[in-house]
Write a structure and sequence with these properties.
alpha+beta, Beta-Lactamase, Arc Repressor Mutant, subunit A, two-stranded antiparallel sheet, 7 strands
């Protein structure tokens, strides 16, 4: 008998109506649709943690964190403050829960009972007994991790792990897609900004487009300022005074 997942329609604004519960393939399809409807990597991660609680059997809270090799970390999305406490031990962002170390070598780490396992103090302090940590991205010096939490011990079994890995595959794809869209949007904005700055210099110096662009590049190198930032400064100065910036 396939496992079914209750998905309250009130939690999703654009879902079709279901008869009350849906099977895993349908649930993942719905999740993927919501993930790919997001505009930025940050909004993708915010949606992902909410979906994780609804899709992963046993999950009550969820968060996404970035972890560096040097021990620095930051939680970039979370369902609630329970995650903030569970992600301890250091509110300044130093150190990390010991079980996360295993994610440098394996895609999944489970904590069966924080009261019995070494390094589970932060989880226990948050009222969390078990955790399922799933690797989203692995770079040379940084991990992106989605972690689900439960107040019950041994809440995450092999089935939850299997579903979690399927879900995080969708999250990873959506993150990559959102990152590309964000980069393209920024590239378009940068191109438009540089075009405006070039036009201002053409008017101000009475030169053609190629000469204006070369002038902009030389000024960027001379002042050790990014071309985009220098262009924004010129455009902002023109907008503020009505005259070309210097």
């Amino acid at each position: 008998m396939p496992k079914r997942f209750v998905v309250p329609a009130s939690d999703f604004s654009e879902l079709p109506r279901f008869p009350g519960d849906i099977e895993l393939p349908e649930a993942l399809t719905v999740a993927a649709r919501h993930l790919h409807d997001t505009d930025t990597p940050h909004s993708t991660m915010r949606v992902a943690v909410r979906l994780a609680v609804r899709l992963l059997p046993g999950a009550e809270h969820a968060g996404i964190s970035e972890i560096d090799r040097d021990g620095l970390r930051r939680t970039v999305a979370r369902t609630d403050d329970v995650v903030r406490v569970a992600d301890g031990p250091d509110s300044a962002g130093h150190g990390q829960p010991p079980y996360w170390e295993g994610l440098w070598h394996a895609p999944v780490v489970r904590v069966a009972d924080s009261e019995l396992e070494a390094g589970g103090e932060a989880l226990a302090a948050a009222g969390v007994r078990s955790a399922l940590a799933l690797r989203l991205r692995a770079e040379k010096r940084r991990l992106t991790v989605l972690t689900a939490y439960s107040a019950k011990p041994r809440a995450f079994d092999e089935e939850a792990t299997r579903i979690g890995r399927l879900f995080t595959a969708h999250v990873s794809l959506a993150l990559d897609s959102a990152t590309v869209r964000e980069q393209l949007t920024e590239a378009m904005r940068t191109r438009d900004l540089i075009g405006q700055a070039t036009g201002i210099l053409m008017e101000r110096l009475d030169i053609d487009a190629a000469e204006a662009f070369d002038s902009l590049v030389r000024a960027s190198q001379r002042e050790n300022v990014k071309l985009r930032d220098l262009a924004r400064r010129i455009v902002d100065a023109k907008n503020a005074t009505g005259r070309p910036g210097s």
